[in-house]
Amino acid sequence: MTCLLLVEDDPDLGLALRVLFTRAGYEVVTADDGQAALRLLFARRPALMVLDLVLPGLDGWEVLDRTRDLTDLPVLILSGRTSPAERVRGLRSGADDYLCKPFDHVELLARVEALLRRSNPEHWRGDYVEAGLRLVPERRSAVWQGHETRLSAIEYRLLEVLVRNRGRVVTTEQLLDLVWDDPDATGRERVKFAVLRLRRKLAVGDSEDPLESVRGMGYRYRDTSPSGD
């Protein structure tokens, strides 16, 4: 049974979410503060974390930072902080999705299912080799110019989609559909900040950035080989 880590300090909401996820077929472990969340992260190795930001002790931002130092499991922020700046901060800090309170239960379950589907190793393909780049699905990593870096599930899927469409522009809407399973194209800023995180991870010395932003359209993986083949 897939295990979810629910980090929420409101006891009533925590209980309601636990019932919701349990009825949907998930095993749920809960924490009501940041320290407990990190202990459960080590002890239970969940498949996904649903994270509130306002917590006693370590707040949600600190939990997210420490989680990203340890693992690339999907993190969905569930917060009453609804400003665009907060959503942008969450995505830039490494969250895979951000849903504001109050929320629709059906939408929450759909987002959890989408994140788990994108992170499921059964959906990974074989090694993919491109000029200067090798994707290694069993480690969910990219070897770029001889340097290997681990990627989150979303980052891996994003890079894979761009690489397999080498030389062609993939629109933001297409990426939301293919990577986030979000065909309605909500939360477009997710693509921007996922690409920024990928660029930081692929930055090796003076090597050329293989990810190109095409203004007003989307992104393209470009050929960086000297011959242009």
UniProtKB/TrEMBL annotation:
Name of this protein: Response regulator transcription factor
Keyword Cytoplasm: no
Keywords: DNA-binding, Phosphoprotein, Transcription, Transcription regulation
Sites of 4-aspartylphosphate modification: 52
Annotation: DNA-binding region: 120-223
High-level lineage: Bacteria, Bacillati, Actinomycetota, Actinomycetes, Kitasatosporales
Highest taxon of source: Bacteria
Keyword Coiled coil part of the UniProt annotation: no
Stored PANTHER family: REGULATOR OF RPOS (PTHR48111), TRANSCRIPTIONAL REGULATORY PROTEIN TCTD (PTHR48111:SF67)
Domain Response regulatory stretches: 3-116
Residue ranges constituting the OmpR/PhoB-type domain according to the UniProt record: 120-223
